Amino acid sequence: MSAGITISSMSDYAILGCGSVGHAVAEELVEQGKDVLIIDRDADRVEALRDQDLNAQTADIREEDIYETIADNEVVLILSSDVEANKEAVRNIRENDGEQFVVVRASDPVSEDELTQLGADVVINPSTVIADSALRALETGELEYKAQQLAEVIEDTDEKLAIVTHDNPDPDSIASAVALQAIADTLDVDADILYIGDIGHQENRAFVNLL
Fold it and tell me: pTM for the complete prediction?
């Protein structure tokens, strides 16, 4: 792939193997205005895709001559749930000197390595993707929960809130105190920042004066 060209700038895609994952990807690409060719060996599925005005053809992605069908597509997404078929598809593309950007679906770490060795540019393991998504959702949920707890504590303040830094506050302590004061302000709670000792470093004093 030449410098300056990104996947998002490409317009011609081929999807080999169109189960639930491939179908979702195809719909999103078409919505973005991309040209998408779908290849699947299930004739009934292909007919259903055509009924949705999608460009679909019936063929076995393991067959060597499949490369001729997708030779002009810039990006090939091999998304079959059959990992062995996916390996054959990658092998056929690279053995025919295909230079397309190839994204392929794996099933486990072993097949990830094998597909990479066969020449895939990007290997996706759905289990890993789901796990990462679940962890991100959990992290987001925990942050939202903690933020709500903090807001409840601040809102329960009867009068003015005192934000006390540690002695001789450093930039991290000062910044945290200012952030908490800003949060309190959004909740209509007055807050003062208090500290004991000296702000010794000149840059720290300048930081406080700026605030």
Answer: 0.63
